[in-house]
Design brief:
This protein is α/β, with parallel strands linked by helices. Helices cover 33% and strands 21% of the residues. It folds into two domains: 187 residues, D-Maltodextrin-Binding Protein, domain 2 (3-Layer(aba) Sandwich); 107 residues, D-Maltodextrin-Binding Protein, domain 2. The strands form four sheets. It has a five-stranded mixed β-sheet with strand order 2-1-3-13-4, sandwiched between helices. A five-stranded mixed β-sheet has the order 10-7-11-6-12.
Length: 336
């Protein structure tokens, strides 16, 4: 991940906000780049009449309702006569299978650790071709039960994602928050069996990531990634009580938690797909992500950070101005 992004400032702006994230796609059932049905370079004219050819369609699988950036990408791809069509999935299990089987062209719903685990488990012949975002993982509280991280006590039920990579990531977050200790030999993907000590005797339960927001009213807190939280209408600025450290200098796991665009391995050099990635890696898309999601996601591709830095500075300035105004009003009231 590009370290030009000033993580300290970005994390400060996003720390009040809400990672897995993420986006992904469904394919058009095309063959590999070398196959006769694979998307060709766009922009060709029709053989007869000199009319512009129909746009080359690229089906991209996504999970969740955080897709404004793809509208911006389609605007940027018009000159190349390429059009992205989103295919929406409801869980994390289907998109890689659909991509591997040729049912979609690309997907963009997962981080690198999830991708590598899925490849190892299922033998998929797929590969990441471009970084996108980080979706920070956070602890969301049931506001009817607790208002801060310090109020979690013995016997409280905490839900975490059931998949290995995000579940392990959630356990590391609980460890960071001071509730448990995990076997350090398990790295950033421990399981419940690797918990060596309960500092607070919480009950940890597991559920599929997309269902966690719905379960939140029935537990004390749930660990939810940015994408699923955003889709559920949770606010990363006000609905969390503890958040994942997204600074790669202090969290060595961060490079593996960057979300990616994924293609079949045979298509990794497909020129059309490269143009889709290039369109994603633009200031226009970065601005869309910042405007639309208010810090729920952090842009993580090489060269990202210009707008993130500006957003951090703006947030700091607004906070300072608000504090000054509050102090002035308090002084005026006291004088009266």
């Amino acid at each position: 991940m590009k370290k030009r992004l000033e993580w300290k400032k970005t994390a400060a702006a996003a720390l009040a906000l809400t990672c897995a994230l993420t986006l992904f796609g469904c394919s058009s059932g095309t063959e590999s780049a070398e196959g006769e049905n694979a998307p060709e370079a766009a922009g060709e004219e029709a053989a007869e009449g000199g009319e512009a050819a129909e746009p080359t369609i690229v089906k991209v699988g996504v999970v969740g309702e955080y897709n404004d950036q793809w509208d911006t990408i389609n605007e940027l791809l018009k000159d190349d006569n390429i059009q992205v069509e989103l295919v929406k999935f409801t869980d994390y299990a289907a998109p890689n299978r659909a991509l591997n089987d040729g049912e979609i062209d690309l997907n963009a719903f997962q981080h690198k650790a999830f991708l590598q685990n899925d490849i190892a488990q299922a033998g998929y012949d797929i590969i990441d071709i471009g970084d996108t975002i980080i979706a920070p993982l956070a602890i969301y509280n049931n506001k009817d039960k607790i208002s801060s991280i310090d109020e979690i006590k013995d016997g409280d039920v905490i839900y975490i994602p059931s998949d290995l990579t995000n579940g392990g990531r959630a356990l590391k977050l609980l460890e960071k928050a001071g509730f448990i200790e995990c076997d350090p030999a398990k790295g950033f993907t421990p399981t419940k069996a690797d918990i060596t000590n309960y500092i607070v005797d919480i009950e940890i339960k597991e559920a599929e990531s997309a269902t966690l927001a719905n379960i939140l009213p029935d537990c004390t807190a749930a660990i939810i990634n940015g994408g699923n939280a955003y889709t559920a209408g949770l606010d990363p600025t006000s609905d969390i009580i503890f958040q994942e450290d997204v600074n790669p200098e202090t969290n060595e796991s961060i490079p593996q938690l960057i979300n990616v665009i994924v293609a079949r391995t045979a298509d990794q050099d497909n020129e059309v797909y490269k143009k889709v990635v290039d369109a994603y890696h633009t200031p226009e898309v970065e601005q869309t992500i910042l405007d639309s999601y208010k810090g729920a996601f952090l842009c993580a591709w090489e060269g990202a950070g210009v707008y993130a830095d500006e957003a951090a500075e703006t947030a700091e300035t607004e906070a300072a101005e608000a504090a000054e105004t509050e102090a002035a009003e308090a002084a005026e009231t006291e004088a009266e």
